[in-house]
Design brief:
Elements lengths: L1 E4 L6 E4 L2 H8 L2 E7 L6 E6 L3 E7 L2 E8 L4 H11 L9 E12 L2 E10 L1 H14 L13 H4 L14 H10 L5 H6 L3 E6 L5 E7 L2 H14 L8 E4 L5 H9 L4 E4 L5 H10 L2 E4 L7 E4 L10
Parallel strand pairs: 5-8, 11-12, 12-13
Antiparallel strand pairs: 1-2, 3-4, 5-6, 7-8, 9-10, 9-11, 13-14
Helix pairs in contact: 2-7, 8-9
Length: 294
């Protein structure tokens, strides 16, 4: 089994081979569909999707359905955006292993070794979730845990209309898999002029953002001036991930939920909606006042 070591982090990536991993990044073509109106059949490129089991210090934490690209960035971004680690240095080791096949697709396992501080933080989080059933919130003990307070973000300028228009025009060129398959979400990081610097695609919108966060951390530029654009709607989870990653500006192509807007205002997140044929809409800014109960 081949292994490689990243220069920016003390992480060992063990995978079957680079060629196997890269092949999973490419769409697959499955024959067998036909048109409703006729009996004619055809085929189409489909996005690749695999289950990835995440083990933290030998204990199962989650199984995620992901596009099997940029997996090291995904793990880093996922752990940061979920509040398990505060910095990539808290990942002491990371290995990926192929566990076999299901439905003729590989199943992968990420084995993460956490430092002592992150391990303790994760254990406390697990303890608060243990043994809770029937509340309808996947084991969450209270509403305070379901809707955690997001750290107040530093003030950041709103992007200009010109920058947003420039950003929007570039999107197709930065989504090669999405252009071919039409079934992937994407997360982009652009500078304040609207020039895209990084792009990550995945079958899951949360995964795409986690990959982007991990990419910025690996590039040691999480606090660089700029903005994140998501091709999806904005839900509260995306706001929480932005806050934990200290990213102050989020633009989405889909409208936000009301709860996402309220938490964005609490956190001072610049939250914008970029409709296709209408002017950009600002729902929250870094000057938004936090809501306080009377």
């Amino acid at each position: 089994m081949a292994a490689r070591r990243l220069s920016t982090l003390a992480i060992t990536i063990q995978l079957p081979s680079p060629s196997v991993v890269m092949s999973h990044c490419q769409p697959e073509t499955l024959p067998g569909y036909h048109y409703v109106a006729t009996a004619a059949g055809d085929s189409h490129a489909l996005a690749n999707e695999v289950p990835l089991a995440i083990l933290l210090n030998g204990v199962s934490h989650a199984v995620m359905m992901v596009s099997p690209c940029q997996l090291d960035e995904f793990i880093t971004g996922f752990l940061v955006s979920e509040g398990i680690i505060k910095h990539p240095r808290e990942i002491h080791d990371l290995e990926f292993h192929r566990q076999g096949e299901a439905l003729e697709a590989d199943t992968l396992e990420a084995r993460v070794t956490l430092g002592n501080g992150a391990h303790y933080r994760w254990k406390e989080h697990r303890r608060s979730l243990a043994g809770r059933t029937g509340c309808g919130l996947c084991g969450i003990e209270s509403l305070a845990q379901a809707l955690p307070q997001v750290p107040r973000l530093p003030a950041a300028p709103l992007p200009s209309v010109t920058a947003l228009e420039k950003l929007y025009r570039q999107l197709p060129d930065w989504q090669p898999l999405g252009q071919e398959c039409g079934s992937l979400h994407a997360a982009f990081f652009a500078d304040l002029d609207g020039q895209i610097l990084h792009a990550c695609e995945d079958v899951g919108r949360h995964n795409a953002l986690d990959k982007l966060i991990g990419t910025l951390l690996h590039q040691k530029s999480p606090s660089a001036p700029g903005m994140v654009l998501m091709t999806s709607r904005c839900s509260i989870e995306l706001v929480q991930k932005m806050g934990r990653a200290s990213l102050p500006t989020l633009v989405t192509l889909g409208a936000p939920t009301g709860l996402a807007v309220r938490q964005a205002r609490e956190a001072g997140l610049n939250l914008l909606h970029l409709p296709r044929k209408q002017s950009p809409r600002v729902y929250s800014t870094s000057e938004s006042e936090p809501h306080h109960d009377d």
